[in-house]
TrEMBL record, chain A:
Organism: Paenibacillus oenotherae
Xref: InterPro entries: Spore_Ger, UPF0353/GerABKA_families
Disordered: annotated span: 491-518
Keyword terms: Membrane, Transmembrane, Transmembrane helix
Transmembrane regions listed in the UniProt entry: 270-291, 312-331, 407-424, 436-459
KW Transmembrane (keyword) present: yes
Taxonomic superkingdom: Bacteria
Family from the record: Belongs to the GerABKA family.
Name under which the protein is recorded: Spore germination protein
One Pfam family here: GerA
UniProtKB/TrEMBL annotation, chain B:
Keywords in alphabetical order: Germination, Membrane, Transmembrane, Transmembrane helix, Transport
Membrane topology label: Multi-pass membrane protein
Record family assignment: Belongs to the amino acid-polyamine-organocation (APC) superfamily. Spore germination protein (SGP) (TC 2.A.3.9) family.
InterPro entries hit by this protein: Spore_GerAB
Subcellular location: Membrane
Transmembrane segments: 12-34, 40-61, 73-93, 113-134, 146-164, 184-206, 218-239, 268-290, 302-321, 327-353
Organism phylogeny: Bacteria, Bacillati, Bacillota, Bacilli, Bacillales
Major localisation: membrane
Organism for this UniProt entry: Paenibacillus oenotherae
Highest taxon above the source species: Bacteria
The name this protein goes by in its record: Spore germination protein
UniProtKB/TrEMBL annotation, chain C:
Keywords (A to Z) from UniProt: Germination, Lipoprotein, Membrane, Palmitate, Signal
Protein name: Ger(X)C family spore germination protein
Annotated source species: Paenibacillus oenotherae
Location(s), subcellular: Membrane
Pfam families, alphabetized: Spore_GerAC, Spore_GerAC_N
Family to which this protein belongs: Belongs to the GerABKC lipoprotein family.
Length: 518, 368, 416
């Protein structure tokens, strides 16, 4: 509880007051008297509420009240499919209670609820509620009207080749995007509602027989242990359920692309779809899966292998390049080829700062520019980048504040960090760059190595849902680890999962094998 | 059991590889040359025999008590009093050994990379990182070991490959200039290093797939020997008789590389190789020492003793020597006897007593 | 960073323990970082370095001080060199030479530092020039210093200079950035003997106890140019017995020395044909010298075999060079010429100087270790009497772009 409060960031007293106000409803079953129920619901939605209580008579005989939020449900359908038939067209011979109505109202998704909580929850979710005199259960209809975007091209993960569809904020749309791709009935989903106030629906999708059931169970356990006020984005969930939330390395993959989710499902991972955000979470992941792009499988395999290696190289560079520059120029000058050293010496001659400070200034400036560019509207963002490029690239060097080699280093580091296909995976290298720079500035390459060691130790201990983060490289899983360095041409490809399955014992998925391996 | 993590056989051998090579890569060429002269390049092959012996002792102990480390087995074999005394010897020996390793690291970094940095900063940072590694458990040690050993091997191979052009194959000759004796004396140093294979007696209880242990361990010894031979050969072919006059011949070799005036002065590579190797080595020995203490004291977990142990080893690293020349004295052949006693003779005595006891008790059981 | 990792670790431990542990780890790592940041003991910015490109060692004579000179790169001058024009009279001026004296090299080096406002950095010193007088005093001290002091490169080329080394370093060659670079490039082109510090030490400390170095002179500057605006060039080979300079040999014997050391490149042999007026110039493509020692019945002998292949680069005779006989004749003459040169150089080493420059001792040691060990102490007396048999094999591969001689009337060409 304390955690959820801290997370919400709202003042405490008000919160407690609200809870006291809402919680009693939880224990109340619905009574068979219509007026009691209406009064109870009136009490819940007493002030500042926009709930419509529409009283009417079924077949002009029995009192009934339809309760709904007009902005959340499709009122036109409500009038046509529920009010219309109920007022006029019910055969007289039937007993008019909720149970019967459930069967005869021409709405496909109707459901009986028995408690006030459920009733109010349904109202909040945009499901109209029908309470009938004499029935101790209420009837809900799935007639929500939600505003959502169309399916568009994902903006954060674009590919040259591959599907252009991206998730939207609507869970139903997202599920349909997945179901459209995955037609096997083994594609299962479990649902859970999280958040005391938001009641966000979270769907856990997995492939039965491919995903390790233990991992699915563990994920459900962690999801149900979440105690929070609200879930507004996938990151909320990620921080609650990752193995080590304090690690800068993401232990879940967030993606906007249904094809990525499907590919990961095929590899034995599970996905979390969260209502209200276009980002789905995928777990368990490894460092290497975070560095793979969906496009690796959409283009010729030779190109993919080349790009993959390039990406590993640049991921490494984005972490250590500024540090290496600092370490080599201030501690190991003999390593620089003579001619290069002479030109660096010339370039650095007028620079007032030590290399470490210079690197820190430039890296922080670069990060600031990058953040500014992301947050600003597109038109202004372009202006910012021009100003940034001019100031950093041109003016600072001519003014003799930073040296030209440093600008090159920062630029390469910047490009390197943009090469990482997953935004969240790049965060770790962006953050850890600074402590390594400090270490390199104090102990040279030795310090850099020490920093790398700490990172490796951390990564070696890290697990994502029980799967070691560095697998399949270490612990080694020889049947899978080729995919880390190699993208095999068809026949041994991951998406030909039959290939994997042939040497997989039933119920023993790929990921599980990695998890058990030490 | 104190350690809950399990490692694979391959991981254990990968841990032992740099635990032996990391320090030997630097000093073995000049030490062996001092004794064996021109024949130094095949001295590790004699050393390998001692390596095999050590492996068999370690495996024998493990066969007697498959789930116990040597320290635990000692109390079972020798009885609690004698066994504790046996353990006490290792409690005193291991910090000494670890201290020497840490000090070697410090001396190397000071003389090659950071001459003005105080020793405590160099050794302290390294030991701290290793202690963090050890605290994370054997699984993490094994995994980080795998990564750094891969780095170690790749960089070392790269380095040696770059040197091929500078080698003079004629330096191989003469072989056996003064008979085989010098080469056998010279083999004492690689042999002392290869006795560190006794680590198997400490690590094997945590290995989960032990079916091929004999074969794999022999292969591990061969790999280590081969690596030593390759390093010795490269030093010999590059520097000839001068190898012995340098403190760190491999370092000189790396400095000598010049490819197209661009790849030059690659000693930072050696430093990277060395650091990644020594990181694994210090971690392994620190782990073994912490485990020994915890088992000797009968503790449930070794983690609480890791930082104190690390500190103790660092202090030992200060105590054992005044300077580089003292360190050279410690790792030179004359004092290798000390290592041999601790890592070969005592374990073999333990094994012999254990086997005799087993035989006696076996007969005792069979008789009634 | 460390705090963060340590933090993560301690999380793994039990919760009750974690708080205490984490604060301890935090305190520890913060104090460590503080100590480290306060340190930066070895940090040297490039701006604070005086990058030495070449070192020169001189000595006015026995018993006197040594003079250590350093060619220091000056970054500022060269960066402002945009205004051309004046470079005609004064050369680029990217280096300055600073020297200091001392009773030994280490002392001279410390004194040199006192004369320079920046940290003198020898890590890029790729050329070492030893003055003739300094060389006469023996190389031992220089070698020990160069191989002991951490910054020096073992791969640096060593030369001996006829003028004082300081003067060589002071040159500002118009073509290269510095005379150090010029010497380095010349070494790479193998214009003379290419000897690194390590090679030099190896050959002096080896069983042969001798060494050779290229000898440098200064090319006279062109008229009207600054007298520094010129290049050093290699002329002759300096020979060292043990570590002391004994004498210089010049062409053609120096060529023989280089052949014996397997180091000759970039040379043209001129062969004069007896009956015709002209000559033929042959550029050897590769020269391979192998030495085979032999001890038979107590007689030590050495078989030297030189194999070479060459192209004809100039032909002023009237021979068409097509007929096998003509080529044979030229080959024979070439062979005679080479044999003469090489034999002279062997005689010089064996008979006159009685110093094993060519690695006889090493070869005997390799192939006859037992005999070698037995007579190791007597080597100096054995060496002059080692019977050397020389065999030269030559082969003319090609005759260049032309076959028959150019610039002569067709009729005068001798086809057969």
């Amino acid at each position: 509880m304390t955690k959820s409060l801290r997370r919400s960031g709202k003042p405490l007293p008000l919160r407690r007051h609200l809870q006291e106000h809402t919680e009693p409803a939880a224990v109340h079953p619905l009574s068979s008297h219509l007026q009691d129920n209406v009064a109870a619901l009136h009490a819940i939605y007493a002030e500042g509420s926009d709930v419509t209580f529409h009283a009417f008579q079924i077949n002009q005989k029995i009192e009934a009240v339809l309760i709904f939020r007009s902005e959340l449900c499709d009122t036109a359908l409500l009038d046509r499919q529920i009010l219309g038939p109920l007022i006029t067209g019910i055969p007289d011979n039937l007993p008019l209670n909720a149970d019967t109505l459930h069967r005869i109202v021409p709405v496909s998704s109707s459901k009986l609820v028995g408690t006030l909580t459920e009733a109010s929850l349904n109202i909040s979710s945009g499901h109209p509620i029908l309470i009938v005199e004499g029935s101790s259960s209420a009837l809900t209809f799935g007639l929500p009207k939600s505003e959502h975007r169309n399916v568009e091209e994902p903006t954060a993960e674009s590919t040259l080749r591959g599907p252009r569809e991206g998730f939207t904020e609507s869970l139903t749309v997202n599920i349909s995007l997945l179901r459209k791709r995955m037609k096997n009935p083994n594609f299962k989903m479990k649902s859970i509602s999280i958040g005391q106030y938001t009641h966000t629906t979270v769907r856990l999708a997995y492939l039965e027989g491919v995903t390790d059931p233990a991992i699915v169970a563990e994920a459900m356990r962690r999801l149900s242990a979440i105690e929070t006020d609200g879930i507004l984005e996938s990151e909320y969930i990620e921080e609650w359920i990752s193995d080590q939330p304090k690690s800068p390395f993401p232990q879940m993959l967030s993606t906007e692309r249904p094809d990525v989710v499907c590919a990961n499902l095929l590899e034995g991972r599970f996905a979390l779809l969260i209502d209200g955000t276009p980002f789905a979470l995928v777990a368990p992941v490894t460092l290497f899966s975070m560095l793979q792009s969906p496009e690796d499988y959409y283009q010729h395999f030779m190109m993919s292998i080349f790009i993959r290696w390039l990406r590993y190289l640049f991921y490494f560079l984005s972490l250590v390049l500024p540090s290496a520059y600092v370490a080599i120029t201030t501690y190991h000058q003999e390593m620089i080829p003579t001619v290069l050293l002479l030109s660096v010496a010339k370039a650095r001659e007028e620079i007032p700062f030590p290399a470490l400070i210079e690197a820190l200034i430039m890296e922080i400036a670069f990060e600031a520019l990058r953040e500014a560019g992301v947050r600003l509207p597109k038109q202004v963002g372009a202006a910012v980048s021009i100003v940034g490029a001019l100031i950093i690239g041109q003016a600072a060097t001519t003014a003799g504040i930073v040296s030209a080699p440093m600008v090159i280093i920062v630029a390469i580091t910047g490009i390197a960090s943009f090469m990482i296909p997953r935004y969240s995976a790049g965060l770790a290298s962006r953050l850890l760059r600074f402590p390594i720079m400090l270490l390199a500035g104090t102990l040279g390459l030795t310090g850099m190595m020490l920093g790398m060691m700490l990172i490796v130790i951390h990564l070696c201990g890290l697990r994502s849902f029980g799967v070691p983060y560095l697998s399949p490289v270490t612990p080694t899983s020889s049947s899978v680890w080729r995919d880390v360095f190699w993208r095999s041409p068809p026949g041994a490809n991951r998406n030909q999962s039959s290939n994997h399955r042939s040497n997989r014992k039933p119920g023993m998925p790929i990921i599980a094998r990695q998890a058990n391996k030490r | 059991m104190i350690e809950k993590g399990k490692i694979s056989l391959a991981q254990m051998n990968i841990l032992i590889y740099p635990a032996i090579l990391a320090t030997s890569i630097l000093s073995v060429p000049s030490i062996t040359m001092a004794h064996a002269g021109h024949d130094m390049w095949f001295t590790p092959i004699w050393g390998a025999l001692v390596g095999f012996l050590t492996v068999f002792i370690a495996l024998g102990l493990n066969k007697l008590y498959p789930e116990r480390t040597m320290i635990e087995a000692s109390t079972a074999i020798l009885g609690s009093v004698l066994g504790k005394i046996f353990g006490l010897f290792y409690m005193l020996y291991l910090p000494h050994l670890t201290g020497v390793i840490i000090r070697t690291y410090g001396e190397f970094i000071i003389s090659n990379a950071l001459p003005h940095t105080p020793m405590y900063a160099i050794m302290g940072t390294m030991v701290l990182v290793c202690a963090i590694n050890v605290r994370s458990g054997l699984e993490v040690i094994a995994r980080s070991g795998q990564i750094f050993v891969a780095l170690f091997v790749i960089l070392a191979t790269f380095l040696l490959a770059l040197l091929i052009g500078e080698l003079h194959p004629a330096e191989f000759l003469p072989i056996g200039e003064k008979g085989l004796r010098p080469s056998i004396v010279g083999a004492l140093a690689p042999a002392a290093w290869l006795t560190e294979f006794i680590l198997i007696a400490f690590l094997l209880p945590f290995v989960h797939n032990r079916s091929k242990v004999v074969r794999k361990s022999i292969i591990a010894v061969l790999y280590v020997t081969l690596s030593m031979v390759v390093i010795n050969v490269v030093c010999l072919l590059l520097m000839g008789d001068m190898t012995t006059s340098f403190a760190y011949p491999v370092m000189i070799a790396a400095r000598y590389i010049t490819i197209a005036d661009f790849m030059q002065h690659l000693e930072a590579f050696v430093i990277a190789i060395w650091i990644s190797g020594i990181f694994v080595k210090i971690s392994v020995f620190l782990y073994v020492y912490s485990l020994t203490i915890a088992q000797w004291l009968g503790m449930k977990d070794y983690r609480p003793v890791v930082f104190p142990t690390a500190f103790l080893c660092t202090v030992f690293a200060y105590w054992i020597a005044r300077g580089k020349s003292d360190i050279s004295g410690i790792i030179s052949a004359s004092s290798n006897l000390y290592t041999l006693i601790a890592l070969l003779i005592l374990p073999s005595l333990l094994l012999a007593i254990g086997m005799m006891r087993q035989k006696i008790s076996g007969q005792g059981k069979a008789a009634p | 960073m460390m705090a963060w990792i340590a933090g993560c670790r301690s999380c793994a431990a039990a919760w009750s323990n974690a708080c205490l542990l984490r604060s301890a780890a935090l305190a520890l790592s913060f104090s460590l970082i503080a100590v480290l940041l306060a340190g930066c003991w070895d940090r040297t910015e490039i701006n604070d370095l005086a990058i030495v490109l070449a070192a020169g060692i001189d000595s006015p004579g026995e018993g006197k001080d040594y003079l250590l000179s350093a060619q220091v790169f000056v970054p500022r001058q060269s960066s402002g060199g945009k205004a051309g024009g004046s470079s005609e009279t004064t050369p680029g001026g990217v280096t300055v030479v600073k020297s200091a004296t001392g009773s030994n090299l280490a002392e001279a080096m410390i004194r040199l530092q006192t004369k320079i406002s920046r940290h003198v950095f020898w890590g890029h010193c790729e050329t070492v020039v030893i003055g003739e007088n300094a060389a006469k005093r023996g190389l031992r001290q220089y070698l020990d210093f160069l191989l002991r002091y951490a910054q020096f490169r073992e791969h640096a080329y060593v030369y001996m200079s006829e003028p004082p080394a300081r003067e060589i370093l002071a040159l500002l060659p118009p073509l290269e950035r510095s005379s150090a670079e010029a010497l380095r490039e010349m070494g790479n082109l193998k214009l003379g003997a290419k000897v690194t510090i390590l090679d030099l030490a190896k050959s002096i400390e080896g069983v042969g106890q001798s060494a050779v170095l290229s000898r440098l002179r200064i090319l006279p500057p062109e008229q009207g140019r600054d007298k520094l605006a010129t290049m050093p060039y290699m002329r002759g080979i300096a020979l060292f017995r043990k570590d002391a300079y004994i004498r210089t040999v010049t062409e053609p014997i120096s060529i023989g020395v280089l052949i014996m050391l397997n180091q000759l490149e970039n040379y043209v042999f001129t062969v004069k044909l007896g009956d015709s007026k002209g000559f033929v110039a042959i550029k050897p493509l590769q020269i391979r010298t192998t030495m085979t020692p032999r001890i038979q019945k107590g007689v030590w002998s050495m078989h030297v075999q030189v194999e070479t292949k060459g192209d004809i680069v100039l032909n002023t005779t009237d021979l068409a060079l097509l007929a096998p006989d003509q080529v044979k004749a030229i080959e024979r003459l070439w062979k005679e010429k080479m044999t003469g040169i090489i034999q002279a150089s062997i005689d010089l080493a064996q008979k006159k100087l009685k110093t094993d420059f060519y690695g006889y001792a090493a070869a005997f040691r390799r192939h006859y270790p037992k005999q070698w060990n037995a007579s190791r102490s007597r080597w100096e007396s054995i060496y002059p009497d080692v019977e050397t048999s020389l065999q030269v094999k030559v082969l003319i591969m090609r005759s260049g772009k032309s076959e028959s001689p150019q610039g002569v009337p067709e009729d005068t060409i001798i086809r057969k």
